[in-house]
Amino acid sequence: MHLLETKVAHERTGWRIDFVGDDGEVVSIKVADGHAASEDEAIERAKEVMVQLTGYGTRGGGRSINSYDAASNGNFDDDEPSLDTWH
Predict the structure, then answer these.
(1) Residue 73 and residue 54: Cα distance in Å, rounded?
(2) Contact, 47 vs 58, CB < 8 A?
(3) What does the alpha-carbon distance between residue 2 and residue 21 come to, in Å, rounded to a whole number?
(4) What is the Cα–Cα distance from 32 to 10, expressed in whole angstroms?
(5) What is the biggest distance separating any 2 CA atoms in the chain, rounded to whole angstroms?
(6) Are 8 and 15 in contact (CB under 8 A)?
């Protein structure tokens, strides 16, 4: 998904942030008023929620191995030695 637009609306129960993609995809995040006092804070909180969700659905639907694995985007450099390599 390539982000084209971010729409923000304040509703009765909080903020709704819609991230709109170039192919018509929309990801909506609801942020309670208690977590954001302004539109900018609501967008930042919604981004934080999306980052937290990126760890889910990895490893064939299984859980991440650890917090580093959950935060990783999986884009490892092939030419870098692994952490277990000793010289």
Answers:
(1) 8
(2) no
(3) 5
(4) 10
(5) 61
(6) yes
Element (H, E) at 75: none
Per-residue pLDDT of the chain (87 residues; tens, 9 = 90+): 789 999 999 999 899 999 999 999 999 999 999 999 999 999 999 999 888 877 655 555 556 566 666 556 555 555 555 555 554
**Judging by beta carbons within 10 Å of its beta carbon (0-12, 13-18, 19+), is residue 64 exposed, middle or buried?**
middle
What distance in Å separates the CA atoms of residue 7 and residue 30, rounded to the nearest whole number?
12
The pair of three-digit structure tokens given for residue 21, joined into one six-digit string: 């993609």
The string of DSSP letters for 2-71 reads -EEEEEEEEETTEEEEEEEETTS-EEEEEEEGGG-SSHHHHHHHHHHHHHHHTTTT-GGGPPPSSHHHHH
